[in-house]
Each structure stands twice: as structure tokens, then as C-alpha cells.
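An instance noted here:
***
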Amino acid sequence: MSANESVTVIESIATGNPELSRSQSAAADFMEKIESTPDPIRTRIRAIYERSGIDTRYSCIADYDLPLNEFEFYPPNWNLDPQPSTGKRNALYKKTVVPLGCRVAKEAIDSASLNSSDITHVIT
């Protein structure tokens, strides 16, 4: 390698999930309650979720674990109508993802024993 060439090195990898989680079975329970889902799909939800290979689902939406009358994001009906707008969804995701991203980035930097000023590239 010549003096002008540089080597790219992955110093650390970190991952993260939103704090809210539920089992795959609990996620299927929620999906089966949605009245606007066509019957041919609704009758297959349990099997689809059981065969997915997923054990735990993560989200920034608390409604999945709340009773219908306590929903904060979706409208309080099992049609989930009207659906939250893209703007409302993005606002919630942004509120969650910025702290999550900062936490995960700090973990990666700390794990590599680097200063943030040492980093030239981030792969997401």
C-alpha cells in the first residue's frame, strides 16, 4: 500500500430497538382485533405470526399494549379509522428515533474507545 492510500476499518457496531416491546403472540392478538382486515387474511394472522421466526416486536407506538379506550396514537376503534397521517407517524418516529440513535451511537463510540471527532463515516 502506498503512503497515499488509506484503510477503512469498522471499529465498532451497535444496534438498538425502541423501548416498547411485545411478544409475537401479543402482536398477533392485536392484529386479529382489527375489524377492517378482510376475513381471509384475519383467519391466517395467527399462523403467519407463529411462522415468522420473530419472537419479539419493538415499536414506538404504545397503543399495541393499551386497552382500546386508552389509545394515544390510533383512533379508539378497532377499524383504526381514520388512520394516522404520515405526518403524525413521522413526528412520533422522530421523537423516538433521535434519542435511540444517540444512545446507540454513544454505545458504538464507547465500545471502540474513540472520540466522536475520530469518526469519518457512519454506516446505517
